[in-house]
Design brief:
It contains nine helices and 14 strands. By secondary structure, the protein is α+β, with helices and mostly antiparallel strands. It has two domains: about 150 residues, Nucleoside diphosphate kinase-like domain (Alpha-Beta Plaits, 2-Layer Sandwich), CATH 3.30.70.141; about 120 residues, Conserved hypothetical protein from pyrococcus furiosus pfu- 392566-001, ParB domain (Alpha-Beta Complex), CATH 3.90.1530. The strands form four sheets. The chain has a six-stranded mixed beta sheet, with helices on one face. A four-stranded antiparallel beta sheet has the order 2-3-1-8, with helices on both faces. A hairpin with a 2-residue loop joins β10 and β11. The chain is elongated.
């Protein structure tokens, strides 16, 4: 297992939904974070991306020249690569380790979405991908995640399934609470708003209002919404829902007490399903401090 990323260049952003579907279709890939990044200086950014590449940048300058004319916005898709299939490869007088799994899917995306001329794929690539975890670590630091790749590892020593975006904590408790006391944060016009579960796009989806949920994802994916959301993923969760059972035994809805309610930090989709099913009480992991 290792961490990797796919970087979708500006001219590939229009295909982002299809690209995410291709990446998520591989059971060996688990999407950890989707991040949209506005680029101030595309030339400097390209140089930063290839800073830790095994090929010296001056060899890549001509090959990446096309990127200077692309739009100044990119999308990162950081993943857990469960089965890297690492191999040792020689090139440009140096050797390096790369993941055959990553290379395979990078080429699938390029074959499908790179510009074509004379019925052949051009080398104006819509996607770049990491070769190793050093590149992942350095790119996360560049994107202002000061702990780099350790951002994704901060809770690995916990006995519960805790997502990376929850801040470090030292004390927590499992307890059963009335589900009516749960509230959640949603994004409203790029601002965070606290509402009841029933007012969330996640719950409205279960009420048959799929377009509200779909538009919510499309509007905020990669900005304030960095987790991987998708209609088919949510439908599958609902159809196979099994809260805290079997392999999900340690995947609690995570909350913290705020005034007279519990704010959901992780697990709004699961809480919405429970609420829709009429469940009155639910076991949660409350973070104390």
């Amino acid at each position: 297992m290792r961490y990797d990323f796919f970087l979708i260049w500006g001219h590939g952003i229009k295909y982002i939904d299809d690209i995410i579907k291709i990446i998520s279709s591989n059971d060996d890939f688990k999407i950890k974070m989707i991040l949209k990044h506005k680029v101030k200086n595309i030339k400097k950014f390209v140089k930063e991306v290839y800073k830790y590449d095994y090929v010296p940048y001056f060899h890549l300058r001509s090959k990446t020249k096309y990127l200077l004319d692309t739009q100044k916005e990119v999308m990162f898709i950081f993943i857990i690569n469960k089965n890297p299939q690492e191999i040792w490869k020689l090139g440009h007088g140096t050797g390096h380790i790369e993941s055959e799994n990553i290379v395979r899917y990078k080429n699938i995306i390029r074959d499908k979405f790179n510009e074509r001329k004379d019925d052949r794929r051009t080398e104006n690539h819509v996607v770049h991908a990491s070769d190793n975890e050093i590149q992942v670590h350095q790119m996360l630091k560049y994107l202002n995640y000061k702990d780099g790749i350790n951002t994704f590892k901060r809770h690995l020593n916990k006995p519960f399934d805790i997502p990376y975006f929850i801040e470090e904590f030292s004390e927590s408790v499992i307890q059963e609470v009335n589900i009516s006391l749960l509230k959640c944060n949603i994004i409203d016009d790029f601002k965070i708003k606290t509402v009841s579960i029933e007012k969330s796009p996640q719950y409205k989806f279960l009420d048959g209002k799929e377009n509200i949920y779909k538009e919510y994802i499309q509007k905020y994916q990669g900005t304030l919404l960095k987790s991987y959301y998708a209609l088919n993923k949510y439908k599958s969760l609902y159809e196979n829902f099994n809260y805290l059972k079997n392999q999900n035994f340690n995947s609690f809805i995570i909350v913290k007490k705020v005034d007279d309610h519990y704010l959901i930090l992780d697990g709004l989709h699961r809480a919405s399903i429970l609420r829709k099913k009429g469940i009155e009480k639910v076991k949660v992991l409350e973070i104390i401090k």
